[in-house]
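User: I've been going back and forth on whether these two constructs are worth ordering. Before I decide, could you fold them both?

Assistant: Sure. I'll take them in the order you sent them. The first construct and its structure tokens:
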Amino acid sequence: MQPPELVLAERPLVRARFPANFPPMPYVNVQILHGATVAQKKAVVADITQSLVTRLGKHPEHIHIVIDEVSPENWGYAGMLTTEYLAAQNAAAAAAAPASGRKKGRTRVRPRKE
């Protein structure tokens, strides 16, 4: 069976009304799992903007950053959905924990009798 042929719509290209010497805008798309706070996202946007200004000499007002938050069941990692991967990691960590319930490496210090 042949794959379907890709047909592109024929329409004239629309040119933006910018001067010919206008530099192209940097567009950055960040995809993360749900759970970042607004403060964390603000910090990421500020860090990416500063990096583009410092490293590439771009103007901050030309930089566009989009943050897409993806739910774990819609993200695959290591051949499985992230929800499955995290569940497997949690199960492995629980199996490796000592059976006594005490945290590994901690000893109880008793006061000396004088």
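The second construct, handled the same way:
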Amino acid sequence: MGPHLHSSPPGADHQGPVGPRAGGTLPVSFFGLPYEASVQTTYWGNRSELVEVLDLAARGLLHAATTIYPLEDAVAAYDDLAHGRVTGRAVIVPNDTFTR
């Protein structure tokens, strides 16, 4: 079963994943979305740009802001995300011995 788009009252801000990993797709066309709805996607670049990014990372020139949570704190991670208490990405790891 694909994703469901829900009606929300004006001014409500709801976000959620849509796509293969979320279990469906969202066809997009000029008249295909309700007024004031928006769809955002990422730009992944091409292979040569990927090589450039990996080179920058290998030289230590990139920093990804992350907050690491052990698996047993996964619910807290989602709560922190929902309330804007995470800078960057929340990363859930299988145990608390994970090191960078």
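Notes on the second construct follow. Helices lie at 47-58, 74-82. Confidence is low (pLDDT under 50) at residues 1-9.
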